[in-house]
Amino acid sequence: MRYLPTGNWMQKADAHTIHEIGIPSLVLMERAALGIAEVIKSKVLKNKKILIVCGSGNNGGDGFAIARLLHDENYSVGIAFVGKTGSMSDECKQQYCICKNIGISIETEIPDEEYGVIVDAIFGVGLCREISGKYASVIECLNAMKGYKVAVDIPSGVSSLDGKILGIAFKADLTVSVQCEKLGTVLYPGKDFAGEVVVKSIGINTELYQNNIEICYTLEQDDLYTCLPKRVANSHKGTYGKVLMITGSKGMAGAAYLSAKAAYVSGAGLVQIYTAKENRSILQQLLPEAIISTYTEYSEEELKQLLNWADVVCIGCGLGQEKTADKLLQGVFQFCKVPCIIDADGINLLSEKMELLEESTFPIALTPHMKEMTRLLKCSVAKLNADRMNILTDFVKRYPVVCALKDARTLVAKENHPLFVNTAGNSAMAKAGSGDVLAGVITGLTAQHMNLYDSVVSGVYLHANGGDYAKKSCGVYSVLAEDLISGIKDVLKQVEQ
Fold first, then answer.
1. What is the pLDDT of residue 153?
2. 125-141: per-residue pLDDT in tens?
3. Does the structure show a pLDDT above 90 at 117?
4. What is the pLDDT of residue 497?
5. pLDDT at residue number 354
């Protein structure tokens, strides 16, 4: 697991390290400069001219220190100071004076020369206003210049809070983040401006992030070993849970198949699909391991028996929005006593009956994509896009659910839990059926007695890693939903080994 702090939280950790731990600010700045200079040297040939553009704050101080370190190793370094002398932080002023004393050229405008490398040290993580005037012109000029672009900690103009562009932003090929990658370079569009992100630890103490629900986090591949449920020698299919998939209307057998197969591949012991009668024969051929039960119309008694049998329920994949589907969803809310994952058409139906969520008595996970989420919220996609984290956090405060909001950066939220930000996966996964696979993965993990929040987080991350494996195998254009399941198999095999 790794933390993804905002600039505000990074500054708190920085202040804690300086004032409570006792490491001086200049020592931390020197460590940051050493780490960033090391990364630059690993990427850049020595004969390349380097321009470092500095602002007035500590980000600018980092820039001056980097320039000195590179100058000491005989790199051709020039500095452009574009900040205000009267606004310089004490540390920035000290680093500025050192550079001046050792003879590094410091300009106050961007030189009209060609450089192999341009380093942005104008604004740090504390920036929260739109960039305008001279600073906007400087960044526009830097973006137009040729050369390899490096950002110090975060590209100037990217909000560390949510990845928004504050008017204009430096377009980096590489961002060297200090201690932690910032949330703003993980979320889009900030991610597009950050390029490759390398993190350099400098000894900032991050103890205050532990068990802090205000700090976002993500997982790394090694975490899957500890996150996923363990298999035991003395076990049988019942040990790993009975899954009921209420999926697949007439002509939508594919959604039922993909979600059920994903549940099996994720480790569930027994999967029963409750689906439209027309899907029986094809599902029996596609997935002979599954029990197939069918309906032609709603039967309360039959649904109650199935719900009493199950350890976990998934409803919605390819379910349709006809009268029978609506009754099935209402029946689940009436009779279910086990965790339930609601996806796709289940969410669309639920959006017209939100009182069901307010009155629910069993654990629920919702897996909407952005458009489905707007139906639950009764708002526009533009509004959701503009403030998705706060909107999602408010949603799980109002409704007692775990919610995985699917997008290029899927977010998982539950009240009184930290926000999970998925950083795995790729654009090859943007295909029909991908959501069905995710619903099945979460259901399969939940069947193995995982806490619902943990199974949603682990399921989202496992599914995304499966997509990364599938991309390696099939390429970015040709991945199909079933390839994701194959990728998930590969991931689980690696975790096991």
1. 98
2. 999 999 999 999 999 99
3. yes
4. 87
5. 97
Give the C-alpha separation, 80 to 317, whole Å: 57
Nearest to 392 by CA among 408, 422, 364, 368: 368
* CA dihedral angle for residue 403, residue 404, residue 410, residue 412, rounded to 10 degrees: 50
The encoded tokens of residue 286 equal 């596609």
Residue 149 has pLDDT above 90, yes or no: yes
| Structure tokens given for 296 | 């032609």
Residue 483 in tokens: 């390839």
Which pairing describes strands 117-121 and 50-54: parallel, antiparallel, or unpaired?
parallel
- The full 3-state SS of the chain, as one line of letters, equals CEEECCHHHHHHHHHHHHHHHCCCHHHHHHHHHHHHHHHHHHHCCCCCCEEEEECCCHHHHHHHHHHHHHHHCCCCEEEEECCCHHHCCHHHHHHHHHHHHCCCCEECCCCCCCCCEEEEECCCCCCCCCCCHHHHHHHHHHHHCCCEEEEECCCCCECCCCCCECCCCCCCCEEEEECCCCHHHCCCCHHHHHCEEEEECCCCCCHHHCCCCCCEEECCCCHHHHHCCCCCCCCCHHHHCEEEEECCCCCCHHHHHHHHHHHHHCCCCEEEEEEEHHHHHHHHHHCCCCEEEEECCCCHHHHHHHHHHCCEEEECCCCCCCHHHHHHHHHHHHHCCCCEEECCHHHHHHCCCCHHHHCCCCCEEECCEHHHHHHHHCCCHHHHHHCHHHHHHHHHHHCCCEEEEECCCCEEECCCCCCEECCCCCHHHCCCCHHHHHHHHHHHHHHCCCCHHHHHHHHHHHHHHHHHHHHHHHCCCCCCHHHHHHHHHHHHHHHHC
pLDDT reading at 44 higher than 90: no
The string of pLDDT tens digits covering residues 182-208 is: 999 999 999 999 999 999 999 999 999
Mean pLDDT of 446-457: 97
pLDDT at residue number 46: 86
pLDDT at position 45, please?
82
Give the Å distances, CA to CA, from 368 to 273, 346, 359: 21, 10, 20
**What is the model's pTM?**
0.95
Q: Which residues contact 103 (CB under 8 A, 6 or more apart)?
A: none
R_g of the chain, CA atoms, integer Å: 26
Q: Give the chain's mean pLDDT.
A: 97
